[in-house]
Amino acid sequence: MKNLKETKEITMSKLRRLIKESSDATTQYENEVKADLIELIDEMASDRGWKTKEEYRENRDDIYDEAFIADSVTGNGSGSYTFSAYQAEENLTHAWDLLKEAMDEFEDDRNPLDIGPEVCDSIIRCYLMGRLLDDAIEEASKGLPDGDKEE
């Protein structure tokens, strides 16, 4: 058995693979969060009668507040997006750098081992939701009139 303190040689091919896996995990998270955001925005627009791009943009803060606590987008309301520790662990595979980035952004110095995979998964989703919100609003309102001109 190797001593855990021994330095392991990392070849360029291993490094490329690790970077690709990390990038793939980030892309998967981004795709899921953006799709969930668009679905939430569509529901809010339908419920509130938004008909123009301007109405979507004007309600950005309300969308952010709703999405931040929505279990269907971030899992932050209950502390779990998946309602499964196992699934949350699967989501975190190759996403530890993204978790660190998110925790640094939120100035969250808790130990991920203490808070568990479901909370870690939610932290990543909250972080990405903030980054993806404007793009999701634009995509959800695509094809609508601007609405910034009075007729």
Descriptive account of the structure:
With 151 residues, the chain is an all-alpha fold. It has one domain. The protein is 66% helix and 0% strand. Helix 1 packs across helix 6, helix 3 runs antiparallel to helix 6 and helix 5 packs across helix 6. The protein is elongated. It starts with 11 loop residues before the first helix and ends in an 11-residue tail after the last helix. The model has no long low-confidence stretch (mean pLDDT 90).
Task: Please provide a brief summary of the model.
The chain has 151 residues and is mostly helical.
Strands, helices and their partners?
Elements: H1 12-48, H2 53-58, H3 60-69, H4 85-92, H5 96-105, H6 112-140
Helix pairs in contact: 1-6, 3-6, 4-6, 5-6
